[in-house]
Amino acid sequence: MGLFDRIANVWKGFISLWVSEVEQKNPEAVYEAAIEERVKKHRDLKKAVSGIVYLRNKLTSELEQAEKELGEVQIQIPVAVQEGEDDVALVLIQKKDQLTGKIVQVSAELEKIKVQAEEAKSGLIAFQGEIEKLKREKNEVLAKKANAEARISIQETLDGLSTDADIKALENVREHVDKLQAQADVGAEIKGESLDDKLSKIKAKTASAAAQSQLAELKKQMAARKSAQGQAAGVKKTM
User: Full-prediction pTM beyond 0.70?
Assistant: First the structure.
């Protein structure tokens, strides 16, 4: 083996490895290509089957026509003999023999074509089944792949080894939320300790005390009016 042949073999090996790696990383594309290739072959096979079916139908029509003509000739022959038309009878007999031979030939061809048509149709149906099977296999394989990748990602996350961008983003968001929560906790813990907060509490208590005092005064005034009205009513009754 020469040097160039060896170099060519090495390049073929590299290309084969590269293609294998690409196929492993893109299983959906590989399945789609395989399915498309089978669909194309299915179309070609369907055309071939349609040709066989057409020939079967054509031979069937020819056989039916020949049998019809033979039936008519067989009826005409006795009539020609009775009428004394020997030349016509001879022509009809020759035609009968031709039709009989044709029927035998066409029948034999038709039987062969019928067998071929049934085999072709069975093959077409089986090929369609293979395509559907490959489609189901594609879905199953892709589902297994997604499940395996998810499990690996979860395990890497649990082990603290994940480098996925979405995991890192989630960690950043969680850390940011935790910091915001800490700020809120600090605000809640020191709330009420500042001078402003204490002054606000005193103002609130003062306002409440003032309101209580006004309420007591109103009640006192209302009671005095009611008492005065009662005394006035007693004086009128006495008079």
Answer: no
